[in-house]
Design goal:
This protein is an alpha+beta fold and 194 residues long. It has helices at 75-90, 97-106, 122-133, 146-150, 169-174, 176-189, and strands at 25-31, 37-43, 54-55, 58-59, 66-72, 113-119, 141-145. Helix 1 packs antiparallel against helix 3.
């Protein structure tokens, strides 16, 4: 491609994007390893003031429902962390729920034992932390053990939409190696899928 001709430029490093008296547009392309190609043109929304305000890494406005993520080295430490976090936030009414969520998600180490507390407001979050710290089940708290999940086999199906019913029928008929491989896959997955 001759990038010197025309007004299209390949972005290779960060650069200023000045206002030019018309909507700003950017093109984003993705060429996937599987052959998936995607292209989207983004345009600035009219009358927006840009991205939400961020001050020292803390969000300026709060969404209605936020997740507070916690992690610790043991189940007891996780309960203790929930108790400390509850006390810390309860003593500081000026802390916004979204700001606490941001700091917990971006500034804390993710350890083996984890929990997510979800709430639509400060009181709901504090009550759920209280239940978590006491070891009680709570509908808005989801505890988990990251190590237990990492030991299980994982299968990832991309679902990028390139498959369709009857896709390889001709290949099944013409290639015994392909047909045998597909039969082995079918037998291996048969007990898990329809």
């Amino acid at each position: 491609i001759d990038w010197t001709a025309g007004n299209v430029r390949l972005l290779t490093e960060s650069r200023e994007w000045p206002e030019a008296g018309q909507p700003r547009r950017a093109a984003v392309s993705s060429f996937g390893v599987s052959g998936t190609n995607a292209h989207v043109i983004l345009e600035a929304a009219p009358g927006t003031g840009g991205a939400p305000e961020v001050s020292d890494g803390v969000l300026g406005s709060a969404p209605e429902t936020v997740p507070w993520v916690l992690s610790a080295a043991s189940p007891d430490a996780l309960r203790a962390q929930a108790e400390r976090l509850r006390a810390h936030v309860a003593e500081r009414p000026e802390l916004a729920s979204a700001d606490v969520a941001f700091v917990l998600a971006t500034r804390r180490t993710a350890l083996e034992y984890r929990a997510v507390v979800v709430g639509a407001g400060r009181d709901e979050l504090l009550d759920t932390l209280d239940a978590l710290s006491a070891g009680r089940a709570a509908p808005r708290a989801v505890p988990g053990d990251a190590a237990a999940h990492s030991r299980r086999p994982v299968f990832v199906f991309p679902g990028q939409g390139s498959q369709w019913a009857g896709m390889a029928v001709e290949l099944l008929d013409s290639s015994p190696v392909f047909a045998d491989s597909m039969l082995a896959c079918s037998e291996a997955l048969n007990e898990f899928v329809d």
